[in-house]
Queue: 2 jobs
Job 1
Amino acid sequence: MMAEIVTPYTSQDLFLTRAFDDEFANQLVSRSVDGRQPFPRKIDVWWVAIVVGAAIGHRSRLPASDKLTKFNTGAILGREPWRVTNLELLALASEGEDIISKPSDVVRIGHEYAMTGLDWLADKVRGSSQPTITLMTALAEILPPK
Amino acid sequence: MQLKYAEFHNFKLLENVRLEFSTNRSLPLTVIRAENGSGKTSVLWALLWGFYGTRGLPAGAHELRLTSSAAPIDAPVDIQVIVEFERDDGHGKTAYRMIRTVQETPRGGDRFERGPVKVRLLRRTPAGLVDVDGDPEAVVAKFLPPRLKSIFFTDGDDVQRFISGESIHGRQNRVHEAIRALLGLDSLGVARDDVENVVAKLRRETAKSAGSDLESAEKHLSEITEAIATKTTELDALTERRSRIASEKAAIQKELNEVRGIGNIDEINAEIKSREGELARLESAEDAILTSMRIAINSQDASWALASESLLSGYDILNGLADRRIIPGTSIEVLTDRLDIGTCICGTDISDGQSARAHVETLRSEQRKVSESRSRQTQTFHAARMGRATYQGQLEDRTDFAHRRTELLTQYAENRDAIKNAGLRIEVLKEKRAGIDEERVRTLASRLENAERKLTDVSESIGRLEGSLADLEDRAKLATDAYEKAERASKVNQTLRTKRLVAEDLKTLISNTLSVLESQYVERVSTRMNDMFMEVVGSDPELAGAVFRRVCLSDGFDIMVHTIGDGHLDPDFEVNGASQRALTLSFIWALMEVSGQTAPRIIDTPLGMTAGGVKQRMVEAITRPPSESDPPFQVVLLLTRSELRDIETLLEQRAGATQTLSSNKDYPVDLTHDWKVEYPVIRACACNIRQFCDVCQRRYDDEHGLIARGG
């Protein structure tokens, strides 16, 4: 079941912007378990960027391919299949019920949200020595009111 | 005698301090809370100076300046101590006020000039205060004999001298002197010496009347007796000198320990270690909180919380399809069934070769394409339904990401504060440790070495003198035999001989009386000391109390600790600190009770080295209100915060007055508030043992459960 969920996406390439990757990868991503960096992998940066973009409610156009850097393929999503489900829900909400049969469009929509999210993340964590705390604190700005 | 209040003006750092003492019979305790360096010893000295002048101060302190070491050079300072007390004169209580004043001018370093001392003793009468007739110091000496001062005004460490010291002989002498002084046996000793002189005079006269042989024998005996007296005086002087040097050495050692912080450095190091351990635990907790945050940020919960609007919107689309039964799709299965049967639902023949069959097959092919999409929608719908249900459950339970985020940030902030405080405290402690005055340490170490050398020299001289005396005593015995032999062979004046024999009998009688009284008092002191000691530690298994069978004073005036199994322990080395403190306080208390003196008992830092049950029982024993048949007494305990910890309730039950002394030298390391005074000074406030105020508040007072006075 889980493998089936991700199957349509395994061949999809996943990107971050090169500028974001160059500036923030070391600051935000670490496999260390101490939590001082908020993300263990780049797929997690990508996913949280999508969620942030969706929270803001804005999709940005993808830049030219030379300004992007591929960090993985959709196969990586198999480790957290719920992300595929949520990605599809976001796509459904954005472009209607037929989008679900077009994985490349689903991923495109994800990327467009991610572009918005990456800009927001960059703005918040730039220069921070405690990015986990900075990010955790900044999320208050985009959390829906209780 | 009971103290009512005391005022200290410019005595050391006690610039303007007034202390009230409890005179309530059923609340005999006065507590003065003060940390190290906050004036406890100054209060003790100021009271001694107030009553007896500089002669009353401990050995080695007579020549110390009385003003603050920070007082400006060449500016005269008026020092005054006022003590109001009351005593029962046999026909009711009378209040007195002792006022001692002197002007001192600091001249730099330890040098100073001191003007004439003015002493007044006033008695309160219905008409007001009037001067008491006679020399005020002599009158006060009758009320509170100076020989008793070291018993009634003492510090916790000082009382240890009864069980510790250079030699057993020294300890025995100190116990013996204390017993004689407190029980008033000194005068009997003087009478015995007087009669001894009379015996010698009569022997001389007898010999003179009986011819040259006896005269020669008497002369020889007299020379030896005089030599013994001279050597004994020398020995007494040397013994006193040794005692004084030992006291000086102890005072230097104490100051050195304070300056080096040896006593404190252990505490500081222990606290640094403890705070560093706490810091490591807090840093590890911070890592755990950050890890929890990372997990939270990357969780499905966070996605649902942040993008709930879009996710729910996507879910609603799928839910709508399900409501309309578009998903899950079943048309392919129905069409396939019909093709297999060969009859459409409407009844048309769709068997092989029929034109309608091709239409149904085309319909099934189209449905297959749509179905892939429906199947995917169905799959996503089921997965999303679970995610949505989880999210909604979290919202209801308030365990959703938004709440979790607030909770983690709060934990992080609190933990950060704790890390900051622990780090600050470690920094402060390290600064404190680094602030030890090395120059002063060198000076004191040199003085200590000097005192030790002098002590060795004096001890050697005493040893030589004791040898000479033993030799002289042997020779005196031989000379006495020779004299008696010569006397029997001579024709002596019988009247003179009879007088001498009577005087000798009288001397024997006085000596025996002194001995009997001493042994009776020793017995009573010994019994009372044992009762109190066993009450305090005897039943405490943690203190190996089970091994103590009894404590007593030996005939040789030694404090003995007997163990079960008929063994005994050296109280100086083989008894733990808490039991030593209990033992010496029991001795002092027993002496005071047996003597019947009603002077105030003022003890500085009595509970050092004690803790737990022993501390509780010791305070219980020394502050217990007198029974109706006993005279009232007054006990003043000068205690640090750590000494009074865990016994607050008992102290409150026994104390009729409580005050706190603080020194601005402790700001900002330990004291919280800046008094805005630019020179060192000690102040008193009315805070009791559970309170703090802007004058006395110390770091961690609130952590120890103290509350703001008036707050």
Note: Chain B touches chain A through 43 residues (CB under 8 Å).
Job 2
Amino acid sequence: MAFIHAVKLEKRFIVREKRKKGTLLREKKTVHALQDVSFEIEQGELVGYIGPNGAGKSTSVKILSGILTPDGGDVTVGGIVPWKERRKHVRRIGVVFGQRTQLWWDVPIRDSYDLLKDIYRIPGADYERRLKELAEALQLGDLLRTPLRQLSLGQRMRAELCGSLIHRPELLFLDEPTIGLDAVSKLALRDFLKWENREYGTTVLLTTHDMEDIVALCPRVMVLGHGKKLFDGALGDLLSRYDTVRTVSVRYEEQAASPRLPASVPLVREGENLIITYSPEAFPTSEMIALLQGAGTIRELTVQPRNIDHLVADMYREMDL
Amino acid sequence: MQYRGAVLGGVICQVFFGLILIAVYRTLYAGKPQSMPLERITSYVWLQQAFFRMLLASDPDLLDKIRTGGIAYDLCRPLNLYGFYYVRIAAQKLTGSLMRAAPMLVFALLLPKGWGLAAPATPAGLLLAAWGLGLGLLCVSALENITMGFTMRTLDSRGMQAMLNLLMMIFSGNVLPLILFPDSWQKVITLLPYAQLLDAPIRLYTGEAALSEAPGMMMIQLGWTIVLTALGVLFWQRNQRRMEIQGG
């Protein structure tokens, strides 16, 4: 059986609505946070978990990490039902909730790690080795002696990751770990995750809104919307369905040059540039180039694939999310 | 630095209250002497002020964790959650009150008779008082952990805490030494857990309570500690089963 095995997961929340005028009691509404969600994840996989806000991603992570009991369905992680044998289960997992902190606010982060060492009963020598390794990979160095409250967001996220991995978990849940990070920190974080996954075969379930995270890290992606699983497979397969349009930007030597394109291909003038959006399926690229060349001397021409965020937005729209 | 400042502030505040209370009692006694000798009253006041910190619910960190969902991380640790919180509460109370009590008691011992802290009535009384305080710490921590349990349900501790603190102040002898309550009241009050937290150990120290009363007091205290802890554990278990960490 797969390492993580989830069958027909279901979770409902009861939301009390604001009292309507003229009624005594507030109405209750049931929100289906998860409906009939099933999946399997093998050991050592790096799986991306995407979906718009409120799709149920965090809810499923909470169930998988054993802190929330589902209303229906079965989950086993390495043969254990997370919420039934919570203490046994959580020993093997590491969690980073990007919005919260697990380290102690006022003390040097090294002291927080020492406490985690005691909580997980990590043997001294092993702990030192692991801490050294993580501190190096995450470039913590001097930060170990700094209280958490003085760290920048990027530094803090690195410190959090170190904290969640110090006990060598087999399974790591990351809930938006790159939120609010600058480009350098994001790249460093991704490199680190790849390294950890390759080196120790740590299984990673990554929740994010940053599609670059998924592209860089996850061969497999699951899409969740309105509490249902909508897609499970390679990111490329998912996007190729939506990735049908190219944008061409042309600049002519002659200001007035205006290529005659079919009416179905929109053309917009932006300063000196002409922006043309077309679909290579319907209108072959070679034909397009020929038409453009016929209209004048081209000084500059760029072809751009669509931005991945736009693709995902299209996808969400089509899935009616 | 701010920690030292906070401790110093606490000490000064408590010393100030101690002096005022003693002045009040002195005025009262100047009018009509009460059943309890003045030196005992002043000792009572000082001990009580010194360990005041132990009684009050006071860990905003833990409450914040529950309120903001930071408790999710604690749930991800291979620990008994009730125990984890209990230990934190007890540790805070212990270090908080020891840091304050030490300088204050030294100060009080240096004050003249009739104002300051008298030596313990008997060495055994001192030992029993210390033991009683320790037990009181366990008991009050159990009580506070039940408040935490309520906070998990209501997400706001203020109402519950205000009520419990009020009960605590009155029935632990913080407003008025319990011995000065009417006799009929005292019978009930001494059976409550609050009475045993501070009042009983202090009375053992001053000699107001005979050493032979100690076992009875300890039994009540121990009984309450067991009952309150058991209640807390059950309550937390129930909470944990239906807990929802809200928000993403």
Note: The first helix of chain A runs from residue 57 to 64.
